Amino acid sequence: MNSLYQPRKRGLRIFHILFASAFIIFTIGVSAQQPELTLADILIGLRSKKVTLDERNAILAGAVRERGITFAMTPEIEKELTATGASKVLIEAVKEKGTAVAVVTPPPTPAPTPIPDFTFFKTRADANLGKGEFALAIPDYDKALILKPDNAVAFLNRGRSYYSIKDFTKAEADFDRSIELDAKDSKAYYNRGLLFESRGDLDKALADYKISADLDPANEPAKAMVKKIADQIEAKTAAARVPVPEPPKIETPVVKRPESVDVGSLSAVNAVKMITPSYPAMAQKSRVEGKVVVEVKLDLEGNVVSAKAVSGHQLLRRAAEDAANRSKFHAATFNGQPIKGTGTITYSFNLKLDNE
Fold first, then answer.
1. 261 pairs with which residues across the strands?
2. Residue 20, C-beta contacts closer than 8 angstroms, at least 6 positions apart
3. Domain ranges of the chain
4. Per the CATH hierarchy, to which homologous superfamily does domain 118-239 belong?
5. CB 307 within 8 Å of CB 352
6. What is the CATH number of domain 260-355?
7. Which residue stretches of the chain have pLDDT < 50?
8. How far is it, in rounded angstroms, from Cα 118 to Cα 141?
9. pLDDT tens across 124-151, in order?
């Protein structure tokens, strides 16, 4: 019975396939007047339940390759076919017959770059002037004035920039040119007045402040500067009229010439001739050593006229005094003239050094 059943089952399966194929072919169009398949034809064929999905894909792929399609493949269509059940084979067949359309996003249209003109450069310069960026403002005013060399405001503002960086020569030239182009601009006179005032030229500053205030009665700063400078000029003039008292004469006191001067400690540095004392024999036997200070008096030529030991061992004093009396020093002076002097000489007696 099984042997009889199997041929029947296969025959019935073949019948279903042939029937489904005929149905799909009929569905996607059998008319010779519409040889190419539409997207709707393929989607309807994929949704057919007469045969399995694999068989539907195989039948449709063959039909696409044989008859072609009426549409172009796009990412959106490919997504829809895949969602409906299209296999890779069917997708490849559709791509072969239809031209894939890439979705290209057009680049954004760039905003047109404005062509720099007088207004562009002056506006940017004015902005930098307002921010205190004078080094950036000046080059833009230069460019603006090349394009429009008769603009009084551009000259005025460039002058303000130069004034702010203390380039007073260029600032004055720009203020002058601004006034030549527009003699009724109160601001130009006011700014030039500031420049004159900073240089200490109060008369010119006062004149410009007055013109500025006359041209614009609402210009309160100019009015205030007129009063300020006028007061300064008046104070300066009044001060010039007051006689300046002569400073009192300071008499230099006459210093009386002393009898002698203290020349301090005398040594070989001051000496014309410096005598070294002999070490007394008694002091050597007694092992006496140490320093002896001798006070001396000098004559006008620096000779020692008096020598007296004031400290030191008694055994060493006479030798020290004798050496001092035989010494000679540079003469002391007072106001450039030789004078008698007094000083001290210190002698050191050392047994070890003497024995060497």
1. 341
2. 48, 50, 51, 55, 56, 59
3. 14-97, 118-239, 260-355
4. Tetratricopeptide repeat domain (1.25.40.10)
5. no
6. 3.30.2420.10
7. 1-20, 22-23, 26-33, 100-103
8. 9
9. 999 999 999 999 999 999 999 999 999 9
